[in-house]
Each structure stands twice: as C-alpha cells, then as structure tokens.
C-alpha cells in the first residue's frame, strides 16, 4: 500500500502559477498510474491529469490542456502538477491518487484577485 501526500497549494491571482507535488511513502510509484483530481465546492470530484509512472505517458482534461503539465521525478518519487495561467474556475481542493485507489487528503487551490 502507498500513502500519498500533496503540497504546494495556496492563493494565487488569475493568470498566476502554482506547482503541486505528490509524494509517495510506503512504496514507490513504480508500476502505478498517478492521477490528479479536483473538487470544487458543491461539485463532484473530477479528473484533471494522469501520468503512467513507467511510460511517462500523460493525459489531461480538456480544460487543463496547454495550461497544466503533469510530470514525474523518479529520484524523489514525486509527481508534480505545474499549473499556469490559472483561472478562478480552477479553484478547488486538489487530490493526488495512486493507482486509482490510494488518495491523499487534498490541498486547497484558490484563484482570486
């Protein structure tokens, strides 16, 4: 079993950037899919981006394409989500998930002027 912990959230102005990180403990991410989801207040939890740890192949929700980049650091056993040109509608709790079943506690991202 793997435990995941998110970091890097906060408050940013529209057009700004944030970098979220997801660190694994208990075992490495090797062989896993690592996925970022987000949940805005009063809404369902939605898929944002996915990376296959072994192949490095990535997938994004349409609203994130061109603005968000998911990447992995093998040495640090970390997956990052670089978010640029943030919009108010990106405001949500962001969750890291490993292998579609191991969840972090989430981290808040607020985009507001």
What does this structure look like?
The protein has 113 residues and is mostly beta strands. Helix content is 0%, strand content 53%. The strands form 2 sheets. Strands 2, 4, 5, 6, 9, 10 and 11 form a 7-stranded mixed sheet that branches. The protein has a 4-stranded antiparallel sheet with strand order 1-3-8-7, with no helix packed on it. A hairpin with a 5-residue loop joins strand 5 and strand 6 (58-60).
| N- to C-terminal distance | 40 Å
Task: Please work out how many helical segments DSSP would assign.
Answer: 0
Given helix and strand content, the structural type is mainly beta
Fraction of residues in helix: under 10%
Tell me the series of helices and strands, N- to C-terminal: EEEEEEEEEEE
Unreliably modeled segments: none
Count of extended strands: 11
Strand percentage lies at over 45%
**Largest β sheet strand count, sense and barrel closure:** 7 strands, mixed
Give average pLDDT, whole number: 96
What coarse outline follows from CA principal-axis ratios? globular
Radius of gyration: 13 Å
What's the topology here?
Layout lengths: L2 E5 L2 E3 L5 E8 L7 E7 L5 E8 L5 E3 L7 E6 L4 E6 L8 E7 L3 E2 L3 E5 L2
Keywords:
mainly beta, 7-stranded mixed β-sheet
Summary of the model, kept short:
The protein has 113 residues and is mostly beta strands.
